[in-house]
Design goal:
- The protein has 4 helices and 4 strands; from the N terminus they run E-H-E-E-H-H-E-H.
- By secondary structure, the chain is of the alpha+beta class.
- It has a single domain, classed as Alpha-Beta Plaits (2-Layer Sandwich), CATH 3.30.70.
- A 4-stranded antiparallel β-sheet has the order 2-3-1-4.
- The protein is globular and about 45 Å long.
Length: 107
């Protein structure tokens, strides 16, 4: 199992602007569920801490394999969402990793 985590800081002059952008981003990524083979789980969370250094949105997803993650990255539905939302962000952070449980199962 490969885990893919992305966090965004979004554009917006006010907290309400950033909240609206976050809700749009959440709905667009959630619309990918069921469209992309190998995407086992997808969850989008909105920051509730309101601290100035926090990101506004986090995407947590799980893929059957590294190949499935790559297929997701190149999938036309994902590319459409990425293109549509690309101008909304001012920062993006990503981590991809193989879970320890998945490593143990292969051993």
């Amino acid at each position: 199992m490969v885990k893919h985590i992305v966090m965004w800081k979004l554009r917006g002059d006010t907290p309400a602007d950033r909240q609206a952008a976050a809700l749009l981003l959440k709905s667009r990524f959630e619309s990918l569920v069921g469209q992309i083979p190998g995407l086992a789980h997808l969850e989008v969370g909105l920051d509730s801490s309101q601290v100035d250094y926090a990101c506004d949105v986090v995407l947590y997803s799980e893929f059957a394999s590294q190949q499935a993650l790559q297929a997701y990255a190149d999938h036309p539905a994902h590319l459409r969402v990425r293109e549509e939302l690309g101008g909304m962000r001012i920062a993006r952070h990503q981590v991809d990793y193989v879970s320890d449980a998945a490593r143990a199962e292969r051993s």
